[in-house]
Amino acid sequence: MSRSVVQCVDLTKRFGPHLAVDGVCLGAGKGELMTLLGPSGCGKTTTLRLIAGFESPDSGTIAIGDTTVAGPGVSVPPEKRRVGIVFQDYSLFPHLDVRANVAYAKKRTRRGERSTDELLEMVGLNGMADRMPYELSGGEQQRAALARSLAAQPDVVLLDEPFSNLDASLRARLRMDVREVLRAAGATAIFVTHDIEEALSISDRVAIMFEGRLVQTAEPEELYSRPASKRIARSLGDANFIRGDGRGERVATEIGTLQVAQPVNGPVEVMLRPEWLSVTEDSDGAARVVDREFYGHDQIVKVRLESGMELRVRAWSPLNLAQGQRVAVQARESAITFDGNGLDSGTDAR
Ligand code: ATP
Predict the structure, then answer these.
(1) Could you tell me which of 66, 93, 81 has the C-alpha nearest to residue 152?
(2) What is the pLDDT of residue 32?
(3) CA end-to-end span of the chain, whole Å?
(4) Using a 6 Å cutoff on CB, does residue 20 contact ligand 1?
(5) Pocket test for ligand 1, best of 8, 24, 26, 44 (most atoms within 8 A of CB)
(6) Which atom from ligand 1 is nearest to the alpha carbon of 46?
(7) Rounded average pLDDT over 74-100
(8) CA-CA distance, 105 to 129, in Å (whole number)?
(9) Over 308-341, what HEC string results?
(10) Cα 17 from chain centre
(11) In terms of Cα–Cα distance, which of 226, 208, 244, 224 is closest to 339?
């Protein structure tokens, strides 16, 4: 990866006794879209506000480009940090039309190569430059806010849940458009969300945050298929956990001997995503169908093994399995293992 445009080192922020950000180290490279993903209250927004300069860290440093903007004895005000901001509630100036909102950012900073009209075209708002903010839909307002954030050619664009007020289909469309616009602008961006699909679909890298700490940072595919802990595995989507006995590159389990990604010996817990498993109708099969959730493009088949353990299996084909039917379960992918000592509650599939 290229040198970081944003570099946070050991950032800590307390609110009274509460440690909201706890030793965060984070680097976003040039042109990279980095996402902070985590449950509500884990410190994502506070991290972003520290980078923007709306909060001061209790300790640690933040550098943007070659400049240290926060650290011992240093506190560069937000307007001098060269950051663009698109927040959920960061509204446009209500008394200015779209063109004036975007032009304002250029004028204020006296930077920006692209014309206001070019920026509006980039975000798909050509023809709407003369509209007032109240004449725009929620999605259009966020497009205008993105154009405004890019107007001054910031070193980094910070986006905090920018789509959370929008309905699901608009949200899905807009996030891909925003990614395209950020790429076309060559912008480095840090994006905050608690939406797993959003984080995995648009990011170059995702940083998982729990209770103020960054616990794993990786590319989406890597994070989803090689989570560093069970908690991270669960936080990224459906996961089955079964007990196994590690024998090098294979692990013996109730659904047979599985190939594992890392050699392991002794008792382990094996993680399998529902789509890493398959079910086939088999009157001698070791599992029975308990339930089915049909989603149109695919379905989740819930099966119970002889031991009583339940697994969730994603089936793509139009399988029409009946409750109680016997099936065989097979793993299609290598499984991931976690330390088997101190196994929590046995059947862990959700
Ligand atoms: P969400 O996804 O719900 O927006 P988040 O991960 O962005 O959550 P933060 O907004 O960063 O979380 O908040 C982290 C913690 O710090 C929370 O417990 C929150 O209540 C607390 N907190 C944030 N800002 C303040 C503040 N100004 N004063 C006191 N506590 C605060």
Answers:
(1) 81
(2) 97
(3) 36
(4) yes
(5) 44
(6) 11
(7) 87
(8) 15
(9) CCEEEEEECCCCCCCCCCEEEEEECCCEEEEECC
(10) 28
(11) 244
Closest residue (by CA) to atom 26 of ligand 1?
Answer: 15
Q: How far is Cα 100 from Cα 151, in angstroms, rounded to an integer?
A: 11
String of b and e for 182-220 (b: at least 16 CB within 10 Å)? beebebbbbbbbbbeebbbebbbbbbbbbebebbbbbeb
Q: What tokens were used for 239?
A: 């996961």
Cβ atoms 204, 49 nearer than 8 A:
no
Q: What is the CA radius of gyration of the chain?
A: 24
pLDDT confidence of 51, banded at 50, 70, 90?
A: very high
- Calpha distance 262→119 (Å, rounded): 48
pLDDT at 222: 95
Residue 19 has pLDDT above 50, yes or no: yes
- Amino acid identity of residue 98, one-letter, is V
CA neighbours closer than 13 Å in the CB half-sphere of residue 284: 0
